[in-house]
Write a structure and sequence with these properties.
Blueprint: E1 2-8, H1 16-27, E2 31-37, H2 43-51, E3 55-58, E4 72-73, H3 75-80, E5 85-89, E6 92-96, H4 99-109, E7 117-121, H5 125-136, E8 140-145, H6 150-164, E9 168-172, E10 182-185, E11 210-213, H7 222-229, E12 233-236, H8 237-253, H9 259-275
Parallel strand pairs: 1-2, 1-3, 4-6, 7-8, 7-10, 8-9, 10-11, 11-12
Antiparallel strand pairs: 3-5, 5-6
Helix pairs in contact: 1-8, 4-8, 8-9
This protein binds NADP nicotinamide-adenine-dinucleotide phosphate.
């Protein structure tokens, strides 16, 4: 039997074991997947154990911490400076980032394009990736942040101008106006247990075509409810969570999935969330 893990701290009631077990079932691979939560002071002593696994996933706070301990980085991880998947072959540890591919597959399954005016709400880890990827795909990008994050967002804007050579606007999330092809929420506003909140006023959706919320708990956030009511195309974070896990299986053992197989797992996971109140990873 092969052994896989998710490392992070804390891990709470992560859905990752259920998602990966469903994928291993599709793969026809005899493997287990467990949560391995340990505090930062135990990080280096955990490495011997991690090297004996077939592969592992990495979440907060170790997405950057793990980098110096790896033998090599895939382009995806080097670009975003963060690792969420590690493959182990012949003792060589390779760091990859499947968040981006998970995001791209999730929006493409909903026929949402990045080659439009894209407004990213938030400039943290996920917001950074959404903004860079939107710019890479030809999007005209605006990053909307609260005043306390302005400096961080300007650093990101400078990086995008230098790396990708396109213009990018930073604005105040509290006074967001305009018409966008796509609005992406990369803030935790509206996440369980503080549901019913949205980072932006619903009026912004009047001129918006599509909305992606990277929060997956609840499946439909207040932001998505407002957007749906305004007639926007909508997609939620569970799609990205399951697709990024599927991309890890492609890396670990070359698995390929039909959209319908992944859609089935997304539905199963949303049902699981409804059955139990689960805090986020
Ligand atoms: P992060 O690095 O902490 O960034 C969060 C961003 O949201 C920061 O820019 C933060 O601004 C901003 N923010 C927080 N509270 C805000 C508020 N009340 N109003 C406006 N902006 C606010 O977090 P992250 O790792 O990017 O994650 C963000 C969200 O994405 C989380 O809900 C996470 O669960 C979700 N996520 C989902 C997936 C998936 O697969 N579906 C993957 C990754 C992340 P400050 O800098 O001012 O605090």
């Amino acid at each position: 039997m092969q052994h896989y893990e998710l490392i992070g701290h804390p891990l709470g009631h992560s859905l990752s074991p259920e998602i990966h077990r469903a994928l291993f079932k599709l793969d026809g691979i005899d493997a287990d997947y467990r949560l391995d939560a340990f505090p930062p002071e135990d990080f280096s002593s955990r490495l011997t154990h991690l090297k004996q696994l077939s592969g592992f996933n990495v979440t907060i706070p170790y997405k950057r911490t793990i980098v110096p301990y790896l033998d090599e980085l895939a382009d995806s991880a080097a670009l975003y400076g963060a690792v969420n998947t590690v493959s182990i072959r012949d003792g060589i540890l390779t760091g990859c980032n499947t968040d981006c591919i998970g995001f791209l597959r999730a929006i493409s399954a909903h026929h949402i394009s990045l080659n439009t005016s894209v407004c990213v709400l938030g400039a943290g880890g996920a917001g950074r990736m959404f903004a860079i990827e939107s710019a890479r795909q030809g999007g005209n990008v605006t990053v909307a942040v609260r005043k306390s994050s302005y400096e961080k967002a300007e650093v990101l804007a400078k990086e995008i101008r230098e790396k990708i050579g396109c213009e990018i606007t930073v604005c105040d999330i509290e006074n967001l106006t305009g018409c966008y092809g796509l609005i992406i929420n990369a803030t935790p506003v509206g996440m369980s247990p503080k549901t019913g909140r949205s980072p932006v006023d619903a009026t912004i959706f009047q001129g918006t075509e599509a909305v992606f919320d990277c929060i997956y708990n609840p499946a439909e956030t207040q932001l998505l409810k407002d957007a749906r009511k305004a007639g926007c195309k909508v997609a939620g974070g569970m799609d990205m969570l399951v697709w990024q896990a599927a991309a890890a299986h492609e890396i670990w053992h070359g698995s390929q999935y039909e959209d319908a197989q992944i859609a089935n797992i997304i539905t199963q996971m949303n049902d699981l969330l409804l059955q139990k109140e689960r805090p986020n990873e």
